[in-house]
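hey team, just a heads up i'm posting the complex here instead of the shared drive bc the drive is being weird again. everything in one block, sequence lines first with there labels, then the predicted structure for the whole assembly after. its three chains so it's a bit long, scroll down
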Amino acid sequence: MKRGLIDFWVGLFVLVGLAAILFLALRVSTVSGQPAGSSYTITATFDNIGGLKVRAPVKSAGVLVGRVDSIDLDTERYLAKVTLSINQRYRFSRDSSAEILTSGLLGEQYIGITSGADDKMLQDGDAFKITSSAIILEQLISRFLFSKAAGDHEATPEK
Amino acid sequence: MAEWFYRFCQNLGHPLNTRLIKLGFACRFLLAILRHTPGILRRPRLLAREIWFAGVLSVLIISVSGLFVGMVLALQGYDTLQRFGASSSLGILVALSLVRELGPVVGALLFASRAGSAITAEVGLMKATEQLSAMEMMAVNPIARVIAPRFWGAFISMPLLAAMFSATGILGGYLIGVELLGLDAGSFWSQMQSAVDFRQDVLNGLIKSVFFGTAIALIAVFEGYDAPPTAEGISTATTRTVVTSALVTLILDFILTAFMFRGV
Amino acid sequence: MTDALVEFTAASFSYDDTPLLKNISMQVRRGQLVAIMGGSGSGKTTLLRLIGAQLQPDEGTVSVAGIDTRNLDEAGLYNLRSKIGMLFQFGALFTDLNVFDNVAFPLRERSRLPESMIRDLVLLKLQAVGLRGAAQLMPQELSGGMARRVALARAIALDPAIMLYDEPFTGLDPISLATIGKLIRELNDALGTASVIVTHDVQESLQLVDYIYFLADGVIVSAGTPDEIRASTHPFVQQFIHGRADGPVAFHKPAPPYLAQLGIGVQ
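-- predicted structure starts here --
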């Protein structure tokens, strides 16, 4: 094997290998988790987060704006404290609300942000004032069955 | 105290003792390779020949295997996913399994049997035919001239080959999923893209293959260098390279996955 | 200092408590061609490795070109070895390089000569062994004798002061054998090297060399010029040069009496 030929094949090999990595990077995956500094964190407390996971998407109007950074239990109030890391580009007013939604019936859970109308914006380290928890399917079903059963006897309002 | 400990280990039995000695020798060997690395950077020609030997010659087996593994994944995955009405997630399944696990691991196993064994046989043969001794007598260090380039050649080739394996696998999955089973091409790619994270999945997969590449490269050159200089010695050394590489790859894979696993 | 390029002074060497060489004293002078003879396992190759400083003596000294081989650091070792050329038993040509690159190897690795000068030198060395026409062949395309000649060209590439030959005649046909023998003698005389040949080819060596050491079980049992050796009455030398099956080196490995082991005969 001539030297020039080896060099040619090795060059081609490295090129194809890098192309494969590039393919995996650009076509197959997305680069998420912006480097520190280009995102800010906001916390939100929920009664129940259901099956929310760390790194779950945070969306506003269906657009991905950030990810769940960490999930903790606030042991004073026994509420779930979720830290969100939001892309610096997106700003939300102080009266925005966060809720835990499910994509499809069995899909993954994510956090949806609905913006309010306040002039002031949420700053790094702030918390959402208005939150609504995950819909727990079992609770929903049992509540439905319970009210159905109760409704058979008399029309009692829920709770 | 040291003396006592050494005697204690000897009493544990001959097999363990020889393995410990071998492990120690392998570590010293790695240090020697690293010490002679700067010399290689000044001579890229030597390295090019070894990348050709370890990398280019493995491209065919790696990419064909990748293609077929991807196609099988797509067929099996489709069968399972459609029971849950989630067949549109096929792209995610194929890409995640390949990028995170199969690319690095199966790629490493194939690499060990194709390139690792070849390196061991080549180095072992050089030892048996006194080529390494001849080099030593010509005042050329065989570790610098023969071992280190082969080590780095394999080291560089492995991640590139693993990436090729994953890429061809995903193309295979695309062929089956979209062309054969009629899934929508747009949703195949976009679902995949939104679910696969570059750092979490692709980069971690590449990091794995770097570890595997280091292990296989070291095992291959070491077994060759350590082989008894006979025909029988070389053939057992070659077998040992493949077996040890496979074991080490799978054990390392578990350790690395456990480290990278961030579930809550 | 004498002009002895290789000098053993009461050197001993043992491997894992098995003594391989015991109290060896010998010297090889400039321009001298010395053969070391002995049966398999008599320590001949160990002796060569001591000269090449791949091994160090446990006792006594081995000095090569005036340098003591013990306690050399890597630079000292390589400095020593750059004075030594060695022809290995089967040539030990690098299988992934062609003939030209094989001969050029020590020049490229050890000297800073420009490529054009390396080319001239390589062709010169190949011409000396008569294989300039084989420059572009790969080692596996060469016959055993040709491979050995290429290896010889490679060994003399850096004009060594000392040449070592490890079994240069093994496995060669008579013509190749004569060619190699002639080359060894010519190169030795032309370059003025001190040469050491390890061999068990008695007839070829007796015609070729200046001095012979006989080695048996790690000890020099006899030494002398070829004529002295032919005239020697030492039983081991007699057995060796005449190739007798039985003698001081017994045909039978020590064993209990045959009949007793078969269970026949009287107690």
